[in-house]
Recover the amino acids of this structure.
């Protein structure tokens, strides 16, 4: 199964995004961030999805919150933590209405970034870290709440964060949980979770931390059935086409990918999105 992220299409109205994707033959769609709140969104969306026979999954910032913020399920700030949990619960409840089988969110942070600090080329403001053990316990508590809310029909996934070189250079350490294989194993010892592996994130993080991307990606691909894909230069998560990313393409070609679910997060034109989709279909055969 190959999904296309709604965030690939830049438009504030989710229904404009869906119309555009449908016109280009795309009916497996991961609903993600990038759109604004819409009146009677849930009712209209459920009807739209049923009418057009769309298969969906929800990710992170969908449905759009009233006021933008950065989800942090490991936050030790009570207000941010509660906002994060409430956002995730809304997404899980909407997932149930839409017949989605999975919901995914990013792993937590040891800081609480502002909205304007997240994104391509953005550098996080320097601030004191939360205690890592306490944040991991908070993330464990969050997952227990979300799993209970989801029940047996919806599987919860946690996506690996991306650590750019610029942020690592500023902090001289890592302000994020779950960026590489070492942090994955540490979290796994304390929390029972399913990883959504973003290969593009892992590529950047491995370059920043001087890890072996091929070895780590090969191991982590065997631990999951859900993968996010895009290309980059290894320095920043730029959401490029897979076409020129030989490292990621070679890793995908080398693995048995049958039975796995993919989402393309490519912020280029529709031609590049469809080319990447066709490439992926060929190697999954």
């Amino acid at each position: 199964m190959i999904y296309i992220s709604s965030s690939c299409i830049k438009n504030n109205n989710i229904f404009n995004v869906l119309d555009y994707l449908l016109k280009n033959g795309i009916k497996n769609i991961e609903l993600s961030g990038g759109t604004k709140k819409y009146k009677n969104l849930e009712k209209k969306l459920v009807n739209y999805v049923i009418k057009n026979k769309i298969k969906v999954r929800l990710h992170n910032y969908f449905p759009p919150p009233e006021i933008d913020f950065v989800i942090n399920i490991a936050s030790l700030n009570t207000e941010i933590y509660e906002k994060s949990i409430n956002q995730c619960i809304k997404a899980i409840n909407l997932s149930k209405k839409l017949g989605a089988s999975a919901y995914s969110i990013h792993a937590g942070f040891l800081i609480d970034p502002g909205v304007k600090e997240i994104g391509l080329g953005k550098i996080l403001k320097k601030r004191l870290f939360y205690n890592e053990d306490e944040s991991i316990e908070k993330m464990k508590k969050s997952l227990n709440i979300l799993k209970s809310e989801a029940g047996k029909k919806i599987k919860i996934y946690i996506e690996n964060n991306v650590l750019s070189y610029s942020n690592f250079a500023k902090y001289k350490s890592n302000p994020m949980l779950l960026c590489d294989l070492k942090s994955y194993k540490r979290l796994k010892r304390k929390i029972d979770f399913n990883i959504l592996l973003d290969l593009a994130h892992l590529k950047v993080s491995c370059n920043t931390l001087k890890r072996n991307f091929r070895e780590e990606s090969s191991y982590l691909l065997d631990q999951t059935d859900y993968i996010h894909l895009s290309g980059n230069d290894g320095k920043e998560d730029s959401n490029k086409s897979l076409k020129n990313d030989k490292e990621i393409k070679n890793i995908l070609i080398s693995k048995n990918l049958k039975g796995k679910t993919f989402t393309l997060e490519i912020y280029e034109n529709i031609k590049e999105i469809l080319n990447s989709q066709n490439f992926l279909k060929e190697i999954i055969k």
